[in-house]
């Protein structure tokens, strides 16, 4: 699981835009909003900068799914596994 959800990332990007594009101000607002006292527990300025760049490029701050097949569990697969393990279904 990711440490920062889409809600957190959106707040950071909105804070950056509403603070006249100041990363340090967005960082301070982020830490105040989520009650983060220690800097090591919060997001870094570089991370907020990365989220902003990603938002500008893709209109989203979330990670995209990698292309390829999505693994699924189908009834046929379950029956096949039970057949090979000799358990009645």
From TrEMBL:
UniProt protein name: DUF4817 domain-containing protein
């Amino acid at each position: 699981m990711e440490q920062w959800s889409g809600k957190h990332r959106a707040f950071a990007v909105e804070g950056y835009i509403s603070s006249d594009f100041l990363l340090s101000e967005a960082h301070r607002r982020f830490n105040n909003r989520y009650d983060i006292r220690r800097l090591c527990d919060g997001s870094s300025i570089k991370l907020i900068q990365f989220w902003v760049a990603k938002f500008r490029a893709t209109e989203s701050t979330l990670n995209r799914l990698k292309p390829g097949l999505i693994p699924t569990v189908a009834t046929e697969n379950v029956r096949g596994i039970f057949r090979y393990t000799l358990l009645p279904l």
